[in-house]
Amino acid sequence: MSKPKTAITPTRSENYPEWYQSVLKAADLAEHSPVRGCMVIKPWGYAIWENMQRILDAKFKETGHANAYFPLFIPLSYLEKEAEHVEGFAKECAVVTHHRLEKNASGKLVPAGELEEPLIVRPTSEMIIGHTFAKWVESYRDLPLLINQWCNVVRWEMRTRMFLRTTEFLWQEGHTVHATREEAEAEAKKMHQVYTDFAHSTLAIPFIKGEKTPSERFPGAVNTYTIEGMMQDRKAIQGGTSHFLGQNFARACGIQFQSVNGEREFGWTTSWGMTTRMIGGLIMSHSDDDGLVLPPKVAAAHLAIIPIVHNADARESVLSYCEQLAKNLRSVHYHGIPLQVIVDSRDLRGGEKTWSWIKKGIPLRLEIGPREMEAEQFGLARRDKPHKETIPVRRSELMARIPQILDEIQDHLYRKATAFRDQHTVKIDKKSDFHDFFAEKGDEIHGGFALCHWNGDPAIEAKVKEDLNVTIRCIPLDDDTAPGHCLFSGEKSPRRVLFAKAY
Amino acid sequence: MSKPKTAITPTRSENYPEWYQSVLKAADLAEHSPVRGCMVIKPWGYAIWENMQRILDAKFKETGHANAYFPLFIPLSYLEKEAEHVEGFAKECAVVTHHRLEKNASGKLVPAGELEEPLIVRPTSEMIIGHTFAKWVESYRDLPLLINQWCNVVRWEMRTRMFLRTTEFLWQEGHTVHATREEAEAEAKKMHQVYTDFAHSTLAIPFIKGEKTPSERFPGAVNTYTIEGMMQDRKAIQGGTSHFLGQNFARACGIQFQSVNGEREFGWTTSWGMTTRMIGGLIMSHSDDDGLVLPPKVAAAHLAIIPIVHNADARESVLSYCEQLAKNLRSVHYHGIPLQVIVDSRDLRGGEKTWSWIKKGIPLRLEIGPREMEAEQFGLARRDKPHKETIPVRRSELMARIPQILDEIQDHLYRKATAFRDQHTVKIDKKSDFHDFFAEKGDEIHGGFALCHWNGDPAIEAKVKEDLNVTIRCIPLDDDTAPGHCLFSGEKSPRRVLFAKAY
Predict the structure, then answer these.
(1) I need a labelling partner for A169 at 20 to 30 A (CA). Which of A338, A503, B186, B353 fits?
(2) Which residues pair with B452 in a beta bridge?
(3) Which residue intervals of A257-391 are DSSP H helices?
(4) Which positions of chain B have pLDDT values less than 50?
(5) What mean pLDDT is predicted for residues A8-14?
(6) End-to-end CA distance of chain A, in Å?
(7) pTM of the model
């Protein structure tokens, strides 16, 4: 079989959704499970999540947050206490109604032991954590209360796609209580900034910071801050969100404290979360028609050493040379962790091995045979460059060069993704241009981010969504647009907002 | 109010179960949640779990295991595939039967969208992981398959106690597949040893390694290896267990591979787990009548610096001195992580602060006032020594001394727990002595570990359990007992086994 021109079929331009599934499969990241809408995250995918966790968790701790753990189940009566909140989640929650199994008359195992009150598998934990916080907070001295939880949540999705939308997913959810509106707003903004920095510097994705419009807010929130990234099909993905919840949840849960003046006041709360969905965003931002491309800071491993043995006699010496080199390299640190080096000693042809690592997105590859051993010089291949291109590196330089080159890859991916985003971001001022920009063009990739004026009317948002499946992703925070006139109504608009199709 | 003689009431000898709850509360480790049988793990308790996770996870990776993630839900039909297994868990599982909520005629929110097949919230994941492994394993080249998962599980318990027995708990579950019986048995034993080493060197608890008797095995296992520790009420707690599953689950799940000889064979599997229950064991092993005592390697923090200010003018200078000292100390590493140092700048009396840290079990305390600042010499107080006793340490020595002293504490706790266990472990050869040893003595703490001969008859085990609530905790692996005669039947016995009351 001759090697196809690209390792992944179909390519991005041929069929983007199928390309995504093929990349996942070729890189061995995840697979469907027998449970509707739930996935299995395989080791190569889970290692990315572990890296994201490690880096984010350190940021949360640096900013004064402590981890804790709250129950998986929420009694129905608790979920109901905040009206908008329950309304937002009622249509998609897993409900536990029984607490054992027993055999019925025909010997079939059926649910038994019906619960007095149904339990909801947490879709998010505001109500159960809020109830607990009500007990923890008594005085202004207990504030701010800054807690985070790493856990699984369940939202019953009818149409799922691995990482991007699954019934069960993994995430972290921060929950905080503050004495004043100002402090709570500042916290929500601070964590929004933490997500933005993480997305830029760790995931190498140039997410755009903004606020959600009222119709796109988290159910029960006063304000939702979001980061929105552009995928290679020019659709948007929502990254982390950070919510200023006002006193809505404090009232619903009874979070009250005695102020400095001795008065009973309701607390001001926030919540903020980032999920395994970001792995989907990572895949769609950087990968190409040969498979996964991973930014080094979150890559499951950094370097694959591929021993090249054409002759059985040389096998032992090449393998042991590679193992020794790997051992040396593992003593080098890259952004706080030891270099993750794999020696691929599988009994496969060299080309097959090389292509498997290209598809898995490892940032660097090193093929080593007797010739390289003798010369003490290797050709280092970067995943973000053409596959045949290598950088000549002497063995003596390798330990110093690898971290530098990894940083160059990280930087290159960020610049590339930024250029792509900017290339497909346009200011649109005419309704017909807006329509042309977003209208379906067969299977062709089209559209992008459109910065347009809007008068703030949710009816217009709803109409645009209905007509073109386009939504306002956010009201960007870091821009310099001047006032103008709404594209749809002609009415005054204080600033442009970001329209896009979205995952 | 004069300070009571002990910080915790009741004391261990007055009422051990209540002492346990009081220690938990005084140390702020966890609390009951509004969900039956589920607890909230508070930051001081969760930090212990994070340390346990970090250390165990590194051991799992060193021994070649990779982390992955599998669904929370198990379709009922999957759970049923292994008969003993489902029998073991049917009485205690949370069942999801609906996937949304809707308002009924009277406006009440009720479960809706009934599922075609009920989903079980995982009590353990053999069946869902086994099903997945059946797809991953095709050839002997895919073996061994060595996977671990960190997650939450649910077993519906009627009588719960925080950490020791809760409806939801956190754990890790390792699942592996091997080509031969020998390799799978070796894996189960290897992970048994990993747990033993971890318990001894990290938790400072002298657990006893052994095998379970057939009636105490994991449902579906061929052999279960366990570690059993003695608590201060002389009852046993089961630590990690490691199961050799034979081909039972491979057959139930269809895990087959092509052998070197080209034949289709069933794999040989293992599973092994350790849970948040170990935190309960940790508390009960080392704590005293003044509260929690923590081994430094898993302590939520290592050192509390308590600024002593009798005069408002000195406040700023003492605080900034303490902060600077803390900053220096945080650059010191202790077993791979930076020293965790807390400066307690709360506006409380010094004595109140000191007692709060004693109750929270921080290994070291340092009270610093103007006098200590001037002398550049401090009195370091150890949690495992009388509270007034301090070690004089010069500031210049502090960075070197603290890790040494922490290791001394770790070692002291282990030796103390070992002496306690040995003091209450007896060989018993007469039935009347056995009865006297275990019979209730009012509320008094009694019993311990009894090493006795037993003929292997499960009917005797059942009778002893019924009469005295005593079970065979394990058949110890590391002992040198000679053959003898069963205490109960007079029949021949190859060796002594370990009897105890247990959590």
Answers:
(1) A338
(2) B497
(3) 277-286, 315-329, 350-360, 370-375
(4) 1
(5) 95
(6) 37
(7) 0.96
> What are the CB-based long-range contacts (under 8 Å, 24+) for A79-86?
A79/A120, A79/A127, A80/B109, A81/A127, A81/A252, A81/A253, A82/A126, A82/A127, A82/A220, A82/A248, A82/A249, A82/A252, A84/A219, A84/A220, A84/A248, A85/A126, A85/A127, A85/A219, A85/A220, A85/A249, A85/A252, A86/B101, A86/B109
Distance CA B66, CA A361 (A): 18
Does the structural domain A425-500 have CATH classification 3.30.413.10?
no
3-state SS, residue A379: strand
pLDDT in tens, B128-156: 999 999 999 999 999 999 999 999 999 99
pLDDT of residue A1: 46
CATH 3.30.930.10 residue ranges of chain A are 16-286
**Residue indicated by tokens 């038994």:** A112
Q: In CATH terms, is domain B303-408 a member of 3.40.50.300?
A: no
Q: Which residues of B28-50 are buried (b: 16+ CB within 10 A; e: fewer)?
A: bbbbebbbbbbbbbbbbbbbbbb
The phi and psi torsions of A150 (rounded to 5 degrees) equal: -100, 125
Q: What is the pLDDT of residue A4?
A: 57
Within chain B, all domains assigned CATH 3.30.110.30 are found at 425-500
B398: DSSP letter: H
The answer to whether the beta carbons of residues A445 and A13 sit under 8 Å apart is yes
CA triplet B265, B270, B274: central angle to 5 degrees? Answer: 165
Judge contact between B458 and B215, C-beta under 8 A. Answer: yes
Residue B1: the pLDDT is 46
> Residues for chain A: how many in total?
503
Q: Which helix (H) or strand (E) holds B476?
A: strand B471-476
Nearest to A93 among B66, B101, B128 (CB): B101
What's the rounded Cα separation, in Å, for the pair B358 and A114?
Answer: 45
Which SS3 state, helix, strand or coil, does residue A312 take?
Answer: helix
Cα separation, A397 vs A443, in Å, equals 48
Name the residue with tokens 């508070």. B42
**Token pair recorded at residue B25:** 């509360």
Using CA atoms, how far residue B428 sits from B230, B234, B490, in Å, is 17, 16, 13
What span, in angstroms and rounded, lies between the C-alpha atoms of A432 and A101?
A: 60
The CB-side HSE value for A489 (13 A sphere, CA atoms) comes to 15
B158 in reach of chain A (CB within 8 A): no
Q: Which residues of A touch B67 (CB under 8 A)?
A: 43, 46-47, 50
The shortest CB-CB distance from B68 to any of A43, A102, A156 is to A43
Q: Provide, as residue numbers in chain B, all residues whose Cβ is less than 8 Å from the Cβ of A95.
A: 96-101, 111
Q: Does B342 touch chain A (CB under 8 A)?
A: no
For A301-405, the fitting CATH number among 3.30.1330.30, 3.40.50.800, 3.90.1170.50, 3.40.980.10 is 3.40.50.800
Q: Span A190-217, mean pLDDT?
A: 97
CB A138 within 8 A of CB A258: yes
pLDDT, one tens digit per residue, over A281-301 is: 999 999 999 999 999 999 999
Residue from A28, A32, A35 to probe the interface with B (highest B Cβ count within 10 Å): A35
Chain A interface, best mutation among B35, B87, B136, by max A CB count within 10 A? B35
Question: Starting at the edge strand that comes first in sequence, how are the strands of the sheet with B341-343 ordered?
Answer: B341-343, B303-307, B364-368, B377-382, B391-394
Contact B165, B159 (CB under 8 A): yes
**Which of A47, A90, A109 lies nearest to residue B76, judging by beta carbons?**
A109
Mutual angle of helices B277-286 and B16-27, in 10-degree steps: 110
The DSSP bridge partners found for residue A80 are none
